[in-house]
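Thread: Modeling a multi-component assembly for a lab meeting

Hi all, long-time lurker, first post. My supervisor asked me to bring a structural picture of a complex we are working on to next week's group meeting, and I have zero experience with this. I have the sequence lines for every component (891 residues in total). Could someone generate the structure of the whole assembly? Inputs are pasted exactly as I received them:
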Amino acid sequence: MSTKAKTILRRILITVLVLYVIFLLGPIAGFDVPSIAKAIQADPRQLVQFIIVGVANGAILAIIALGYTMVYGIIELINFAHGDLYMWGVFSSLTILSLTGTLTTKDPVHIIWGIAVALIFAVVFCAVVNVAIERLAYRRLRNAPRLAPLISAIGMSFTLENIGLIWAQQSWIVPSFGTTGGASQKDYPDLLSRLFQGLGYNVNLLASSGLGLRLTIKDLLVIVLAGVLMISLRLFIQRTSLGKAMRATAQNRDAAKMLGIDIDRVISATFLIGGGLAGAAGLMAGLYNGTAWWFMGFRAGLFAFTAAVLGGIGNITGAMTGGFLIGLLASFSDGYLNARWTEAWVFAVLVLILLLRPTGLFGEQVGEKA
Amino acid sequence: MQRNIRSGVTFGIIAGFMTFIFGGWSVAIIGVLYGVGLGLSLGGRLKREAPLGMASQALPTAASAGGVLLVMSLIQNYIVAPAIGQFPADPSVVIPANLAGVLGGFIFTLITVALHGLPEKQERMGKLILLAVIVVAFPFVDTFARLNWLAQFIFALIFVILGMGLNIVVGYAGLLDLGYAAFFAIGAYTTGIFSSPQHNIYLNFWLVIWIAAAMAATFGLILGAPTLPLRGDYLAIVTLGFGEIIPVVFRNLTDVTIQDPLTCWIIPGITRLFGGQSGMACITLLSHMDVTAGERGINPIGRPYLPIIGMFTNAQPIPWYFLIIAIILLTIFLVNRLRASRLGRAWMAIREDQLAASQMGIDPVRTKLLAFAMGATFSGFAGAFYAAYISGIFPDVFDFSASILILCTVILGGMGNIYGVIVGGLVLLTADRLFLPALKDFLSGLLNHTVLPALASNPTLRAAVAQNANPILYRYLLFGLTLVIMMAVRPEGLIPSAQRRMELHEADEVPNAAASTSMKS
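Re: Modeling a multi-component assembly
Sure thing. I ran the full set together rather than chain by chain. Output:
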């Protein structure tokens, strides 16, 4: 037998073995093929419903993933704190909604300007915080060994998380946090549905179509907003001079410096934009999912990072695509496998991509940095 | 001279604040500990002469520190204690406790300083003996003074072992492992499964602790093998993910059914596709088995037994304390041997420059894998001890924050230096387990008796203050900040290894690189 045939045979054997193990142990984590097939057969409409939910959640993940991918593209740092910044986006917008009295009102005009103020505040707030984090924690470590900024980022993430925990119990600022302490999940009122009911619309856009599906205003708004953000970010990076400077810095920092680009300014701008996006994602996620929780940033951050890696880290289109794919995966896992194992499945995907195709779907080949 | 007096006063004030928070008999132990600390910091600075001369040099400093401590301790007894709602201390405690603390501090300062006057070999010996005396005497003093620190202090020691294990991975091999608590969990759950009513298996603790270590090492290999070829930052996030998944797994393994897929649905499915009926029997390996009991946790877990001491119990922490000290000594020995071995040098070579190391014939993946497995082994020991000590395990204990806490001890003490890690672990964990709860009691006492009545006219402010004056809430925040601040200010840690310091301050040393190379050699 030739060596080529041998390697092929070996690969087939390994694949069969891996598949067998997946089918053998998969049911523990909900991956039970016969029962999934049965569930899909019983109600195919459910599948479409899961796709809608998955795409909407994926849109939020995609926006968070943009922050990861932009920062990684420029300074090659996994900004662990980014997911928690998104959590701060949720809490800061919720706080503003509470302070403006939007949480309890039924007046559509009040809701609209309340959300607008909360959006602006969350975006500005998270953007400024992100820039401050870069200045305080990362800048001085730019030339240190790789481990140092990474540890700093982990510490920052932990810090933000636990400030969130303390934030979540300040019921003297936001009465709806209640007295259950900071660790419990807090309600984030479904203002969009309330707004459209107040205006006299049906919340479900497909209610009269007779398909028995549910596509709400919320779903549509989240998806459209994500699309708009992505297109404007692309335009910004392709067309403006700051965007050009970002691309140059990402390619070769030293060369960009020699050409007169102010590196510090470019990096600050990257963190500013990433932070603003996290703030926007926070408001959207709050309105969409209806909860605020101090620990939500961890999971979202892990998912969004997976999305960024899946799409090819450093690549904006890739991050968006990855976000939608991970959103779908999470939604299917919640629906058909077992919601308690969703994290494990998403994470398994991360490991698989890193092993099989570390450059992701759209990434270019990047060599190991010595 | 003045500077020494000033540092003596500083030590006295810090020790005094400790007595503010702990109160009662604590002054005795705090006195001895600050005495040793002051002696160590002073001894290195004083002019070297014969031991007695050194002691007489240190006399004014020791006296001033003791004086400050005495004054502050008395303030605690008669002013602070009533303000936080305790009874003013009884003279039968105040007099002996303060005497023991102040005199102990004074004497131990002098002894420790005097040690610095001995020849180098004897000086090291003397310090070791001093350390051994403190380590051995601590539990008995604790019991005698009814401080009840021991039970909590044992947790700190568990994290010292974990820190030493993680130090192999992060400090020696330079791999950022953010899910180290997973191996801790594996060690603990192995112990739980093999020595509890959960599966009606009751193995001896002395056997189970080895099984737990072996199991943790095996999982280190299994989890490490696919991920170690990745570059550093990807490795970090993958280990973070593992660390997050392992508690999820333990939480959810409550109803495990494993069936052979071929006989159960693949072949019957295919035959059904062709309209046939298959009479194949479905091979079931496990059916609805509750492996880990989910959120309820496994308990009770079997405990160690020794001939003379008998069964270890909750009520008697002293045997546990000496057991963990023994494990720590074993760990220190093994880690030191490992570090000096060929493998240990290979780890450091990989950390410095993987490319160069692999050119010299070191297999990077195998070396890293062994680092992972070795690191995991020690957390297996720690996990087994933990499970037996608590006599029950719950999935919440092993989440991300535990991994960060362990990482924090390594970073705070100094990556790559085992003694730094021990100090880091002790400082961080005693702060976490002893200092913060005591501070909480102190603050809540102060609030309830002094501050809140004064705020009665402003209910909003009163509620806000009452809610947030709980230092326990800020503990993880402090750990996060510790990481950030250490990285910014002193990335090599409190007690760094010489090599690491060089590496992390590479940038500062470029201008006089020639000087630093000559110093190295």
